[in-house]
Amino acid sequence: MAQTDAFQQATQSLADRDRSDLTRGRCVVIQASGHHQGLILIDAARDAVWQVITDYESFPSFLPTVVDAQVIEDEGDRKLVEQVDERQVLFTKVTSRIQTENVETPPHKVTFELTQGDLNRFRGSWRTVLASTESAQPTLLLQTVDAEAGAGPLEMAFDQLLKRSIRENLQAIAQEVYRRDRP
Fold this sequence. Notes:
With 183 residues, the protein is α+β, with helices and mostly antiparallel strands. The protein is 30% helix and 43% strand.
């Protein structure tokens, strides 16, 4: 596959093992002090991936920990989304609620930023990148997240939880793309 310049740029900092995992369809997540980047190569067209990552109100049907999601305001390419997340942490069910302002730049980028919720900081983006110069697929999906829970000494545990969540969400998004894209 002849790779696009955008794909090469997006993956240039990956270690050889991560690049190999990515080309085999595995999700790669890189973490460094509150900054996370997840990547997955999805064997589908960019538009199919875009339809899934911007279908906010359907998130509870395919994202593993999202139990509710609603678009509160819709001003074209700017959407205010409220999302409720539930997950088991050790022996306790933890519920969190966040509201994000999502700004869409179709069909390649959604930026999001916390407007209110249970975290101190939560911002990032989704990007879709054409991987091949020869075909409309596969599509590289990248998610970047800068987050801080304000958990003090438990912040490292939050970072690990977020890393796992990014991986699970990217894999779930890929599965949802495949489910929708293939009859």
